[in-house]
């Protein structure tokens, strides 16, 4: 900056010397001036040299003044500078219009002195008025921005209350289905992995229990696949909530800070998040909702795999994992039966279907004897 100011002084001095040196010589009393001196290029050299010497003495005060001006301007708000600049420009435009009309009077004093006074006065008045209303302008702009933010959820609501950030918990990562759901395009946005979830997965992967260890390693593999997929946005989060002891509460706080949702299979975390009014996406609930509807009176073929708990019940499972409770099916374990649906029950654990044997007379003999029917039991 120092060199730039000195170069600027040299340039200005050279320009003044080049344009005014010969005029200065003409204004001197008549004398014999050599032709070699009567040269504008000599004037340029003299002017540049004089201004260079002057710059060496005043460059430091100029730099100090610029630093003070910079500190002063940085302390001012953007709205103050913007409103002041607009007011200044508006004042200069008005002063130019007034001065232009005053030139028709052709009065030298009026054109020079009064025009300068009008220009300075209106420029100052414009700057003062602009800065006086800078706070109102800042509040207005902030209110407009807040209003747009408030309208965003309403606009998103037309397409399903889109939430950009989804916080994944440990259970949903170990479950593994989240990877296929994301890749299928049913979930969009940024999927956030907290450092606490990563620590839990590492702890489970190092467990002496072989089953837990396999679950933990599966979860880490799922995380790696999520990060390696270029079509999926994954972010690691290092936020620390020291006032919360449990990981579930930390995840809820994280979702609150991000204004996002929690994706989980954990029943307790689901309830805690709902209590804190944090949106929850439960993979089990999604799985239950996408299961095909079962209508009473519908027939299906199932295989009894174990005994039920009441009234000679037998238990079977559909391919999607739905439990089917068959009345009087206790004695037909490992046999395939045609059953008729009587009712269904939706629970947090999943769907249960209750059914009766379609045609007991045509069903094979029970496992305990050829001469005894289910009704006799």
Describe this structure in words.
The chain crosses the membrane at residues 41-59, 80-101, 113-133. The chain is of the alpha/beta class and 377 residues long. The protein has three domains: 2-132, no CATH class; 165-288, 5'-nuclease (Rossmann fold, 3-Layer(aba) Sandwich), CATH 3.40.50; 294-376, Nucleic acid-binding proteins (OB fold (Dihydrolipoamide Acetyltransferase, E2P), Beta Barrel), CATH 2.40.50.140. It is built from twelve helices and ten strands. The strands form two sheets. A five-stranded parallel β-sheet has the order 3-2-1-4-5. Strands 6-7-8-10-9 form a five-stranded mixed beta barrel.
Based on the model shown, name its key terms.
377 residues; alpha/beta; Rossmann fold; OB fold (Dihydrolipoamide Acetyltransferase, E2P); 3 domains; five-stranded parallel β-sheet; five-stranded mixed β-barrel; disordered C terminus
Relative helix content: 55-70%
- Taken together, the total number of domains comes to 3
Tally of extended strands?
A: 10
Question: What topology, given as strand order, has the largest sheet?
Answer: 3-2-1-4-5
| Poorly predicted regions | 153-160, 368-377
* Element-by-element helix/strand order: HHHHHEHHEHHEHEHEHEEEEE
């Amino acid at each position: 900056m120092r060199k730039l100011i000195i170069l600027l002084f040299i340039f200005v001095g050279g320009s003044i010397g080049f344009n005014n040196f010969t005029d200065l010589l003409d204004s001197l009393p008549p004398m014999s001036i050599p032709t070699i001196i009567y040269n504008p290029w000599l004037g340029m050299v003299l002017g540049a040299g004089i201004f260079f010497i002057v710059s060496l003495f005043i460059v430091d005060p100029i730099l100090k003044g610029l630093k003070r001006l910079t500190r002063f301007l940085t302390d001012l708000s953007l709205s103050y500078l913007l409103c002041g600049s607009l007011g200044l420009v508006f004042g200069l435009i008005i002063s130019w219009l007034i001065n232009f009309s005053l030139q028709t009077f052709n009065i030298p004093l009026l054109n020079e002195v009064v025009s300068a006074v009008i220009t300075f006065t209106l420029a100052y008045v414009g700057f003062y008025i602009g800065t006086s209303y800078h706070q109102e302008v800042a509040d207005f702009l902030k209110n407009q921005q807040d209003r747009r933010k408030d309208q965003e959820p309403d606009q998103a609501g037309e397409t399903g209350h889109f939430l950009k950030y989804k916080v994944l918990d440990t259970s949903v990562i170990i479950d593994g289905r989240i990877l296929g759901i994301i890749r299928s395009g049913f979930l969009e946005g940024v999927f956030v992995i907290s450092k606490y979830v990563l620590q839990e997965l590492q702890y489970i992967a190092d467990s002496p229990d072989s089953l837990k260890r396999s679950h933990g390693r599966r979860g880490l593999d799922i995380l790696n696949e999520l990060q390696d997929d270029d079509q999926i946005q994954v972010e690691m989060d290092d936020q620390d909530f020291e006032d919360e002891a449990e990981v579930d509460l930390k995840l809820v706080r994280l979702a609150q800070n991000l204004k996002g949702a929690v994706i989980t299979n954990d029943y307790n975390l689901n309830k805690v998040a709902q209590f804190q009014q944090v949106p929850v996406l439960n993979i089990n609930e999604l799985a239950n909702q996408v299961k095909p509807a079962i209508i009473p009176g519908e027939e299906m073929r199932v295989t009894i795999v174990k005994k039920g708990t009441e009234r000679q019940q037998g238990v079977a499972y559909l391919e999607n994992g739905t439990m089917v409770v068959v009345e009087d099916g206790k004695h037909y374990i490992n046999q395939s039966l045609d059953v008729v649906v009587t009712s269904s029950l939706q629970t947090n654990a999943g769907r249960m279907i209750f059914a009766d044997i379609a045609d007991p007379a045509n069903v094979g003999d029970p496992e305990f004897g050829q001469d005894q029917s289910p009704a006799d039991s």
